[in-house]
């Protein structure tokens, strides 16, 4: 069995029906338990973006949002959406929306828990699943397992997807050899990640809003130009999602599977990476950053992924596989699914502009995701090696990430996506089970926040009053205002 076949085999086991059901089920459960906070607290999600200010130990709320969004908004928003449509039909878009709406509840819980049990490591806040698993569940072995999987996933399995898509887009648009794109991206990434988390936060704060807004404005332009077909496209999405479309009804199961799979890959809700960025923020109450992270899920999927889906579907620049080696729809014969779908979509409206525009957008999307992966990998190395001089371990994982970034740019897209899916799936399995077990604490945090907002008092988190143990940072009040 060669490497590609082995990776595909493992991917099939990790991303089977049980994980699809776990992702959807967890989202439903958290939505009900929080009384659909993703609707009730929508205004608060936006206002909390500007509340937490940076300190000597932590980044601002907005920087935490930007860092998490930088991880969420990546090649999954362009190539991932195209893959979902190609393998699951237009109906996959609906299931991406569904998992974003439901996943916002999961994102709140995991981010709030990360804030509750964050710690200071080398003068900076660190946190995430490993920390709240150890301190909240009292299972250090489980925390070590998640940290090891996260280092493997973020440091080695996932970076190649981002660099592969950058290389493919620039090769298509500007005929740049993939090895040259790979070297350039790897070198630039190295300059940034060796600057530490504060530099990552500053770069993300500047780049992420700019790249997402520009991309969505392009989608709006395409929608305005072809506005008469918008109702038709939405009708097609809903018919395909529920198996009532004459052409795509037979692959409704694939629409669900690929919509959830690519939705989780893109928005990361419940995956366990977002809370690691959330833990780095300086806030007065854990729920503040929980709401901020829930909002980032909306921006990623309901905003950027929808932009890609509408551009591709409105312009008809897609194919849909039948799962048997053939096609249910072949509107652009011979074109491989991925960034080429979006490049061709923009090109139909603005000839000569599409390939370059998408290549540049994809560079920003994927590059900020690589920066986030670096931070997530470092956080988990710091957890595994705390008290044992983790700097050499962090340096080693940075070197490994840079190596895999170049490796991904010169290998096949299929291999890179399969490797990345394994990483995402393993983290999701471990993290979703943990936050379901810790849901009671997450709900305590939410209710405490709501009570303080209703009373109009300044936000303040007192874990002792709430009966939450092992919260070192909050108990010692060792953070700087």
Automatic annotation (TrEMBL):
GO cellular component: plasma membrane
Subcellular location: Cell membrane
Pfam families: Na_Ala_symp
Transmembrane segments: 12-33, 94-117, 141-161, 173-194, 206-225, 237-260, 357-377, 389-409, 415-439
Topology term for the membrane: Multi-pass membrane protein
InterPro entries for this protein: Na/Ala_symport
Alphabetical UniProt keywords: Cell membrane, Membrane, Symport, Transmembrane, Transmembrane helix, Transport
One example GO MF annotation: amino acid:sodium symporter activity
Origin: domain of life: Bacteria
Similarity-based family: Belongs to the alanine or glycine:cation symporter (AGCS) (TC 2.A.25) family.
UniProt-recorded name of the protein: Alanine:cation symporter family protein
Species of origin: Candidatus Geothrix skivensis
